[in-house]
Structures are given as C-alpha cells and as structure tokens.
C-alpha cells in the first residue's frame, strides 16, 4: 500500500514539477531577455516566474524529503532522466511529443525544463539507496522477537533464609 501511495504522489507531483519548472525558468529567461529593451521592469512577470520555480521546488521537496516509499520518487526520477536524455538526443522529437497546448508551455519553456530534468532525476533515483525509505513507518519501540513490552516494575524477590527483617 505504501508503494501505491508513493506512485500516486509521484504521478501528481512530477508532471507539475516539470511544468512549473519550465514556466518559471522560461519566464525568468524571457524577462531577463526583455529587460534591456524595456523602459520599466516587469515585476509581476518576475514574481510569477519566481513563484513557479518556488512551487516546483516545494513539490520536488515533497518527492525527495517526505517519508514515502521510494518507488514513486524513483519512477519520477526515471521520467525526468528520460526527458533529459531525450532532449539531448532528439530535441525536435521531444518538442513534437510534448505539444504546447496540452501542457501550457512553449518550446523554450519545455527546453528549459528538459535541461534541468537530469538534475532533478539524480536525487529522486538516490532515494532507492536509502534503507530507511524501504522500511515501514518507524515505531517508538522496537522489541526483539519474543520480548514483552514493559509493564509495572517487578515485586522485590522474597527474602532469603536468615535475612534480617526490617
């Protein structure tokens, strides 16, 4: 059940992270490119682009830092790695496969997100190597096999013969 939950979280968070990263990085690049010609700085565009990158970072933190099973983050990492390699090998094919009207990104924004994808993939794939992620939720106590949980203190032993009484 933990694995299914982590896959569902990854199916929701990873695509949103990709889209928000592309929108934010593309928006910051466009604003920086337009800045020398513009008479006034577009603070709204800078703020929305920065907020997109920040929200993408929060979703990425959910995938990497939350105490969920590692299968979902690892699958998300494989997806990011696939997009990153695909963008390096056949960028034209990647842009054709991710139509801008479906994900709301133009070609420059998809390219920006694809360029960052391998960077996002590595920490997500490393979650497979963390043993604590594979274990279930931690308990407050961990008794060995056959051990009893603590109870009230044991009564004192009976007096031995010849022990002075009080």
Structure overview:
There is one protein chain. This protein has 166 residues and is mostly helical. It has one domain (2-134). 66% of the residues lie in helices and 0% in strands. It has 7 helices and no strands. It has helices at 2-34, 43-65, 71-89, 91-97, 100-103, 107-126, 131-134. Helix 1 (2-34) crosses helix 6, helix 3 (71-89) crosses helix 4 and helix 3 crosses helix 6 (107-126). It is elongated and about 105 Å long.
Summed up, the helix count is: 7
Helix-residue proportion: 55-70%
Low-confidence stretches: none
Give the SSE string: HHHHHHH
The largest sheet is: none
Task: Name the overall outline.
Answer: elongated
Q: How many beta-strand runs?
A: 0
Distance between the termini: 60 Å
Evaluate the radius of gyration.
27 Å
Mean pLDDT: 84
Name the structural class: mainly alpha
Note the main attributes of this structure.
166 residues; mainly alpha; 7 helices
Could you give the topology of this structure?
Blueprint: H1 2-34, H2 43-65, H3 71-89, H4 91-97, H5 100-103, H6 107-126, H7 131-134
């Amino acid at each position: 059940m933990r694995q299914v939950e982590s896959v569902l979280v990854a199916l929701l968070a990873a695509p949103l992270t990709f889209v928000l990263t592309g929108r934010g990085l593309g928006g910051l690049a466009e604003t920086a490119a337009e800045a020398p010609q513009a008479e006034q700085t577009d603070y709204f565009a800078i703020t929305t682009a920065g907020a997109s990158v920040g929200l993408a970072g929060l979703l990425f933190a959910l995938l990497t830092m939350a105490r969920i099973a590692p299968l979902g983050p690892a699958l998300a990492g494989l997806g990011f790695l696939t997009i990153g390699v695909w963008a390096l090998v056949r960028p034209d094919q990647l842009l054709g496969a991710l139509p801008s009207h479906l994900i709301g990104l133009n070609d420059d924004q998809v390219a920006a997100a694809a360029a960052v994808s391998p960077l996002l993939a590595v920490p997500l794939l490393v979650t497979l190597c963390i043993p604590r992620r594979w274990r279930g939720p931690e308990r407050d106590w961990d008794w060995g096999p056959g051990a009893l949980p603590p109870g009230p203190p044991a009564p004192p032993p009976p007096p031995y013969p010849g022990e002075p009484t009080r």
